[in-house]
Amino acid sequence: MSDLFDIKLQRSAYKHGFENNQDLPEKYYRFPLCNVKLDYDHSLQRPSDNDYTRCHGTKSQLKELGHDIKTTFDVSKVNELQNKDLWEWAKAWVLKNPLVTLNVQNPGQQFPFHMDGTESYNKFIPDMEEKRKRLRRVFIMLEPWSPGQIIVLGTKTITHWSKGDVLWFDWYHVPHGTANFSRAIRPLLQITGETTPEFEKLFV
Amino acid sequence: MFSDFFVVVVGILFGTMSGLLPGIGTSISLIISTPFLIQLEIHQMFLFYMAILSTAQYTGTIPSIFLNIPGESNSMPAVIEGSKFRRRKLSSLAIGLCAVGSLFGSLIAIVLTLGILPVAIEGFKIFLQDNFKILLFAIVFGAGMFAFNNKKFLLNGALLVLGYFLSMIGIDDINGVYRYTAGIESLENGIPFYPLIIAVMVSPILSKTIIQEHNMIFVKEKITSFYKVFVFFLKNIKSAIRGAVIGFFSALAPGFGTLLSSNASYAVESKIQKNYPAKKILSSETANNSGGFALILPFVLIGIPLTGSEFILYNYLVEAGWSPFQFENLEQNAIMLMYNLVPWFVFVNLIALIIAWPLAKTMITLMTKMKGYLNFFIAGICLATTVYLGIDNYQLGYYLTCLILFSIITVKLRKINFTPVLFSYILGTELEFVLTRYLTIWTQ
Fold first, then answer.
1. Which of A68, A173, B210, B293 is most buried, most CB within 10 Å of its CB?
2. Is the peptide bond before A107 cis (omega within 30 degrees of 0)?
3. Is the four-CA dihedral B360, B68, B202, B200 of positive or negative sign?
4. What residues of chain A have any CB closer than 8 angstroms to a CB in chain B?
5. Is A1 in contact with B170 (Cβ distance < 8 A)?
6. Ranges of H-type helices in A10-161
7. pLDDT digit string (tens) for B133-148?
8. How far is A163 from chain B (nearest CA, A)?
9. Is the ipTM of this complex over 0.85?
10. HSE-CB for B101 with a 13 A CA cutoff
11. Distance of alpha carbon A162 from its chain centroid, rounded?
């Protein structure tokens, strides 16, 4: 029984396809959207701060399954004070007003299927309809893929990425989950921001 | 992290304190043990709770009989009948009788559970399959309306609405928008649980003196031998059986805990045996323990909390990864009950028997010596835990502000029992999800 996930799935245009194991149409994701050059060395990182206070919607969907968000991945803020280099890079990238987190999924961790809420972006765009139109979310892979690391978008499984690959997916419509049963960490940068003409050009 | 044995021993300690010290109920024991509780595995949380609950049923009798004050809210029959024993210098007989009766009640409760469990599982499956959650809310909100504040429906209804409103503050998970935050950033994360339960459960009690001054006068009397107690118990075993059965089924009434168990069996026994204090005290104490076990059954089996303390535990269980949809795990939960909980339940009862019988005088003397430090001890633990959880959630100032604000309200209005607020606060979000989901299905 998962009430909140079911309720959120109702909004998805891909709902029927998801429930019937149909392929995820390509309009809902692009991988790789592009590849970016980004300096990241995990061994130089300080421990994650694991501040999950902004993950409300997903927290509740996990609780329905008896999962705690703290077991899904380690999270760190990326801003002026923390992970400044990554922040400077993300700020200068193609999404406007980016909200950035560094998500490190350790071996054995998993994040079951969920629908994104993007509540954290309410301070810029509070209206859900506006968010659906203007808000974009990407994952930037910070280490090369290791066997056992997967990201699943609907029925599409994403693997074999390279360092710097950018994965875009339609957060509003696509249920997704991740797992890491490799023996290596899987760090990625999650960037949520308003779209810009430069960002849209990447799809051409 | 901790062994089951260690968890049970800590539970027995808290249960001993809970029973011996008037004002410290199971709820407060859970609240002050939060730093320990949140580190436990799910089955250990149940073990811990069961150990507190069972031990308190034994030790609650001690101050009732020796000092004429109820250790717990359900010890009133023991106070009334215990004073008759005290006048005749037979307190140790009453203590022994209650302890043996309590053990008997617990064992009867296990037998009754074994008898009804297969029927109950089938019954749950037939009647609850489709409407499990709706039924859960109906039971809980019914309990909230009827079991508190002398059945003042309007007041209880208002408190339930208040709790539901508090649960709605922050993110609306369904639509992804903030609501009722008045632009205050901290409120975006909702009202934190821990400061709220301290305000509702602890602050009003701390604002009074937890233990009134009592003269520790033990009447010099002959110690009754174990043999004599057993013989006396066997002579009155019919009352114990009646108490155990009445107590078991009365405890299933939502909201009352074992209060109804002890009082119902006491009332029945008083009708049957008007002038036999031994039968009456035995019946009510047996009912207490039998009811104590029955009380946890709906909670363990299908995840329906029935009392304030179960609500507190429910919240911690869900935080620890226990799915609130336990109906789907009915069979596994029955297995956990019989194989993980029952053996420890028997163990706890045996230890509690020793604490509440041969060690009774020692325990109460020890506990009364602690009374001067008790307020500071409880307040200190509650404050330290709030600070710890506030730091852990990056909201220290917010947690402390909530604690102070809510405590001012509940202390000022301490004649009101705010427990219904907790009921709807804890289940509010789930209720919203379930209703929205039903609405979505019906309108499609």
1. B293
2. no
3. positive
4. 1, 3-4, 6-8, 10, 51, 53, 56-57, 60, 63-68, 71, 117-119, 122, 126-128, 131
5. no
6. 15-19, 56-64, 84-92, 128-134
7. 677 778 777 877 877 8
8. 32
9. no
10. 38
11. 16
